[in-house]
Amino acid sequence: MKDISVECLVFLCKTYLYSALAVAVIALLYVLSWDSNELTYVDPVRVYSFTPEVKSSAEAVIVQEVTGDLLQEEEYNDSLEYIACCVEAEAGNQSELGKRLVCDVILNRFNQGEYSSYFEVIDEPNQFKVVENGSIETVNPTDDTYRIVVEELENQTNTEVLYFRTAHYHPFGTPLFKEDDHYFSK
Fold this sequence. Notes:
The chain has helices at residues 6-32, 52-57, 67-91, 96-111, 118-123, 129-132, 143-154; strands at residues 39-42, 46-50, 61-65, 163-166, 175-179, 182-185. The two termini are 33 Å apart. The strands form two sheets. The protein has a three-stranded antiparallel sheet with strand order 1-2-3. Helix 3 packs across helix 7 (143-154). The protein contains seven helices and six strands; from the N terminus they run H-E-E-H-E-H-H-H-H-H-E-E-E. A hairpin with a 2-residue loop joins strand 5 (175-179) and strand 6 (182-185). The longest helix has 27 residues, at 6-32. By secondary structure, the chain is of the alpha+beta class.
């Protein structure tokens, strides 16, 4: 079993904290909206408000999307964090373009439809050395790396790159170009 780094524990704590925060927000909305003339019902996806008029006509008004938005935001933040850790560990000493291209390898593999999450792309056996050697768990991505990942998620620099390595091109795929210390292929 791999040792769990402090950063990994912090990451897990943040994840659980966001989940607990979502539950607390829902509970707070329930408590704050309660009065004798209004009943609020919270389900896992929406908060419904029933006023006396609405109750009599059996219509419900969606007050606020709560859990769905929070869960999507949490999933996005978790993915962003993991991609940034991978990019920092693989290309932290490379140019901005080199970091963008490593990020694009992850995004392009995901976009091929063979994976259901960025985590699956990165954790696929024998794909990223930083997963194999554990450095992905100990690295602290810079603000610049986070910015690069966010920008690439919005608008990729390269939609072809699927592989990279140091020293030479992979024996499979089609060689494309060398950027800094990495040889990129599709």
